[in-house]
Input
Amino acid sequence: MWTPVPMPPQAPVQEGWVEVDGAKLWYWDTGGPGDPIILLHAGTHSAAGWVYQQPVLAQAGYRVIAYSRRGYYRSDAGDLNNPGVGSDDLHRLIQHLKLDTVHLVSAAQGGFFAIDYTLEYPGKVRSLAVISSYMGITDADYVAVNARLRPDFFATLPHDFQELSPSYRAGNPEGHAAWLALEHQAIPGKRITPKRPQPLTWARLESIQHPTLLMTGDSDLYTPPSLLRMQAQHMPHAEVHIVREAGHSPYWEQPEVFNRILLGFLVKQK
Output
């Protein structure tokens, strides 16, 4: 019914914290001379959730970095009245690590901040991968579609039902349990959502000309293929992939397929 993918041994990392407006954000870094990739986590996970990607990307020669946003696993919440600007926090990490240009790989809500960073600091981004993110575009046509996709009751559903495909939940109970454990670990207190520097519109999205990868799962309730195609119409230069039998977390549910697509995209940016 389902062939689970074992969690691979992780590559060695150095851990650290970077200060942003009085809060400290936790990050890990595989180091080395390879091109740096920064992984931006979903709203239900943290920097600890990239277990299927970290060793694969490191083995491919990349310097792999991930961090937990404010209030997430091992990062400070800081002043709850000042959640900070997500793209500014990311820039502070990049400055702290003295990185020149970076590849950004983002999942779900992490895509909001990866897109913002690409718009705010275009010279620092080599490529942009946005995975299963509805992006938060504010144009009326897009808002209306998202309201039809996710009526009010949707927010009351358990996160694993919202985000993991039926095939995965039916076929991989151990992976389902591991995903839930990472979710419960990710947000020890009140969930904090960083601010965005300005609203994201179709016009601003269209201004991004960096090499771009758009991906989603065919069972994603947040970003189904129809919504991904709507996004892609405004980013015609983007490479677009739909992962079969995956929901909102294709990097977790179908890691071998996801990693193959991601590495195929990244190698084109050499």
